[in-house]
TrEMBL record:
GO cellular component terms, semicolon-separated: cell envelope
Superkingdom of origin: Bacteria
Organism: Flavivirga aquatica
Protein name: Thioredoxin domain-containing protein
Keyword set, alphabetical order: Cytochrome c-type biogenesis, Disulfide bond, Redox-active center
């Protein structure tokens, strides 16, 4: 793990988004917006699934805007007949993105908003494969404004991701999780694809930022900030998210995605670089209370992790070396288990044996919420007075920062 930059790993993992679409003409846009006004609270979804599909039904399921809650709620289910389906007279009190789920874990994203929505699904074209969402596949959505815009956005990404220049990088992305068991091999392959993956990711990020800013009065914009690349602050730093939020049109007030970002922004302004952290206290494995203030006078790396997080655990050997190197200079590490499962946490501590102080968040995840944790690992480097001097430093970036602080 010595030369692994987890931030780079996260960036590479981002790149599997594909969708096709066509340019939105002024006339089409006007027609779609008129459709929403005419059918003020009613939506219908008609669609076709190309090719063979396992199963004979398709469901609309919720996408939870609460990033701590990944439960799945089914809104409606209809039969598939020769690959065709239709959901009629859906009452829409809260416009939002939903999943059309079929064939066990296969799904595609659709924006549930008033109007007639048309969907053409291509089940053989995989976009994402994730352990909690299943397999998301490609689709073309038309008929309402957010669906058409989302299809356009995904189409631009698709053109980049499937270009011959980036084919090998995409193949590497798909095997990334399998390589966590062999970090030497992972490190070697990351260096091999470093330049080309950076070029691709820069192009994808430009498309995303341009879209978010251009369509800052449509709910698809905060949706993309939140969900498009697994966890939104994997892709953007706090300042970028705050800038997006500050530019949003007032018409988005009350939208569930806007409100989720608002919660993040409020918390981020309390945990930004330069902010002195409020004190907190949590229990260690022996039930003893450990407070942040007990580390005053030292530089501290606060490391949020969980027993099930492979990148978190893989970082332990490197953190061990850094602690050994800088401990006499006044450097310490405070590990915080963001997952309150105490039994599994203790098993992980017994297995990996980190030497630094370890505490666990409570069932309400009070401290994780205080720090606005929405991804793992997340780290905060604080100075002797408890002021945040850096966020999310890993491997070489953390090495360089500590070298600057301690001079060796």
């Amino acid at each position: 793990m010595k030369h692994i930059n987890i931030k780079s790993i996260t960036a590479i993992l981002i790149g599997l988004t594909i969708i096709s679409g066509t340019a939105l003409s002024c006339a089409q846009k006007k027609k779609e917006e008129q459709s929403i006004v005419k059918n003020s609270t009613i939506a219908s979804i008609t669609g076709t699934i190309k090719g063979h599909v396992n199963g004979n039904s398709i469901s609309i399921t919720e996408i939870n805007a609460d990033l701590d809650n990944e439960s799945i709620d089914t809104i409606s289910t209809v039969s598939l007949k020769n690959g065709k389906f239709s959901f009629d007279n859906i009452k829409v009190d809260d416009p939002r993105a939903v999943k059309l789920t079929f064939g066990d874990t296969i799904n595609t994203i659709v924006f549930l908003e008033p109007g007639t929505i048309n969907v053409e699904i291509s089940p053989r074209d995989t976009i994402y494969t994730e352990y909690f969402t299943g397999i998301e596949v490609r689709a073309k959505r038309t008929g309402t404004i957010n669906n058409t815009l989302f299809t356009q956005y995904r189409d631009k990404r698709y053109n980049i991701l499937t270009s011959p220049e980036f084919v090998k990088v995409r193949a590497f992305d798909k095997t990334m999780f399998d390589l966590y068991a062999d970090f030497d091999l992972l490190n070697k392959q990351m260096h091999q694809f470093k330049n080309i993956s950076s070029k691709r990711d820069s192009m994808l990020m430009k498309i995303k930022k341009d879209f978010i800013v251009k369509h800052n009065d449509k709910m698809v914009s905060p949706y993309i900030v939140l969900f498009e690349d697994y966890r939104f602050n994997d892709a953007f730093n706090a300042k970028e998210i705050i800038d997006f939020f500050d530019a949003y049109d007032n018409s988005l007030n009350g939208n569930k995605y806007y409100e989720s970002i608002k919660k993040y922004v409020v918390a981020s302004r309390n945990t930004a670089v330069g902010i002195t952290l409020a004190d907190f206290a949590l229990k260690n494995r022996n039930g003893e209370t450990i407070s942040l203030s007990s580390f005053k006078g030292k530089y501290v790396l606060i490391d949020f992790w969980a027993y099930w997080c492979k990148p978190c655990v893989a970082a332990f050997p490197h953190l061990e070396k850094l602690r050994k190197k800088y401990r006499t200079d006044g450097f310490e590490i405070l590990g915080i288990s963001s997952d309150p499962n105490q039994e599994q946490w203790i098993k992980a501590l017994n297995k990996h044996k980190p030497s630094w102080t370890q505490v666990i968040d409570n069932k309400e995840k009070t401290v994780s919420k205080q720090f606005n944790i929405s991804k793992l690992p997340t780290t905060f480097l604080i100075d002797k007075e408890g002021k945040i001097i850096a966020i999310d430093l890993y491997a070489e970036d953390l090495d360089n920062e500590l070298h600057t602080i301690f001079g060796h």
